Description:
- The chain has 12 helices and 17 strands.
- By secondary structure, the chain is an alpha+beta fold.
- The longest helix is centred in the last third of the chain and has 22 residues, at 296-317.
Amino acid sequence: MTQPAANLRIDADRLWSSLMEMAQIGPGVAGGNNRQTVTDADGEGRALFQRWCEAAGCTMGLDQMGNMFARREGTDPDALPVYVGSHLDTQPTGGKYDGVLGVLGGLELIRTINDLGIKTKHPIVVTNWTNEEGTRFAPAMLSSGVFAGVHTQDWAYARVDAEGKSFGDELQRIGWRGDEEVGARKMHAFFELHIEQGPILEAEGVDIGVVTHGQGLSWTQVTVLGKDSHTGSTPMPMRKNAGLAMARILEKVEEIALSHAPDAVGAAGHIDVYPNSRNVIPGKAVFTVDFRSPTLSVIEDMEARLRKEAQAIVDAMGLEVSFEKVGGFDPVAFDEGCVEAVRSAAERLGYSHRNIISGAGHDACWINRVAPTAMIMCPCVDGLSHNEAEEITKDWAKAGADVLLHAVVETAEIVE
């Protein structure tokens, strides 16, 4: 397989200009973006992406989940395409780069090889996956999940937002529901470029994260039942304080995650206490514990220890507790061949790099089930993401897109 020459690089100014132009669609209130899935702003962003792709000589495919596929032909009509991409939808208070860098980095590599007249044996397809964020319609990575057979299309269409609107209806309303069967496409490989969404690469001064694994995830909803009572007139030894039990359980969550350092993490992000009144001792607490690790046995250990430790705490306090597994997926090991293509590209280009584990879910985690897959990460300032203050530099974007270009073109096989 012919490796691209080390002087093959993307046009950093053109990529950056595209990122900034896309960021004008669905602006946030603090410099970022609010371009949530299947909104009018999402439709506008899709239309701009399609115009750019068609100007670059690509043909656009659209499936029944709204996934967009911009295809540049290869020289072998029977060769399976190499896919590349991410997502254009954002959080309600999202940044300009999360997901978008992966889509427009893919477009930029098409533009670059067009400029240089490079031909590849395999077609190259740039993809925009619908509803990666999962903010408006849960869960995250919804459409890539349907593509990979994790969810059914009917189930996905029936997801509703806070206003009771269904995903299927809103996709139809904005005019981006295609006719193509979801998941019918076969892939030679899939590559996704993404910002790290964590602080490691910037802190260590490393240009490229070679993503070897994606963390597995476990969400357990814990419900603690005590007794509502007056904060002023209930003696301390006679209280049935569900809030206190929750606090003690969360200390155990911290201990459990730290016992599997450095790769495991754990916390509770969603917490409700009832009746949530200033002068009432909580009689009920409901919270979701989020454990993550790249090792399935570690996740299973953390789940079991949570239940054991929480049960002991509430038993000692005379309270009740129940547990419900409300979400999760197993860890992902990305394809060794695709990972090596990313690593060798970084070395060939002279970029510093290190192996890294993705702490967030990505479309690549589902696509890895149906095709050889790898991810490339670039740093982001202070590791901040899902925030309008999310920021990267033009040099970081260029490095990530250069590595993406080389890994994809090598996998698609240059035709001399």
